[in-house]
Automatic annotation (TrEMBL):
InterPro entries: TatA/B/E, TatB. Pfam families: TatA_B_E. Residues 90-102 have a biased composition (Low complexity). Residues 84-108 are annotated as: Disordered. It is found in: Cell membrane; Membrane. The keyword Protein transport applies. This is Sec-independent protein translocase protein TatB. The lineage of its organism: Bacteria, Pseudomonadati, Pseudomonadota, Betaproteobacteria, Burkholderiales. It comes from Ramlibacter agri. The Tat system comprises two distinct complexes: a TatABC complex, containing multiple copies of TatA, TatB and TatC subunits, and a separate TatA complex, containing only TatA subunits. Substrates initially bind to the TatABC complex, which probably triggers association of the separate TatA complex to form the active translocon. NCBIfam families: tatB. The gene is tatB. Belongs to the TatB family. GO terms for molecular function: protein transmembrane transporter activity.
Length: 152
């Protein structure tokens, strides 16, 4: 780039003042300023267009890679599904032929203490909204909670 210091700018201004004259110098300076501004805007627009085209190319490449990955996943899921269906048919056909006198569903077992797991799986906000007790109250706490208040 051009290295313009204060001394060089003063020299250019003095030469312009002598050559152009003091009457026309402000108008010429405005014209030069507007032309430089237009040139800078044009250069910025070209830079922005180049950046947009580069980003568009990158997005196209990314889209192609994502689409190829999606196709790979889809094909692997389809092969896994067909394999599973095949194995399921084999298992059900052998199970139904060998165990024709026993039921196909498991025998019922009482869950015993598993209800705590089910209770813990319900979110607290749902319990609070539906009035489910989450803590046990002692007798005195229950009396204090439901005792009518006296206003003095």
């Amino acid at each position: 780039m051009i290295d313009l210091g204060l001394s060089k700018m003063a020299l250019i201004g003095a030469v312009a003042l002598i050559v152009i004259g003091p009457e026309k110098l402000p108008r010429v300076a405005r014209t030069v300023g507007t032309l430089l501004g237009k040139a800078q805007r044009y250069v910025n627009e070209v830079k922005a267009e180049v950046n947009r085209s580069m980003e568009l190319d990158e997005l196209r490449k990314m889209k192609e890679t994502v689409e190829s990955a999606a196709r790979d996943v889809e094909s692997s899921v389809q092969t896994a599904a067909t394999d599973f269906e095949k194995q399921w048919q084999d298992a059900t056909s052998t199970a139904s032929s060998s165990l024709s006198d026993t039921p196909a569903y498991p025998e019922y077992k009482h869950p015993k203490k598993k209800w705590r797991l089910k209770q813990g799986a319900v979110p607290n906000w749902y319990k609070a909204r539906n009035g489910v007790r989450t803590r046990a109250l002692s007798g005195s706490a229950r009396v204090a909670k439901y005792r009518p208040h006296k206003f003095n």
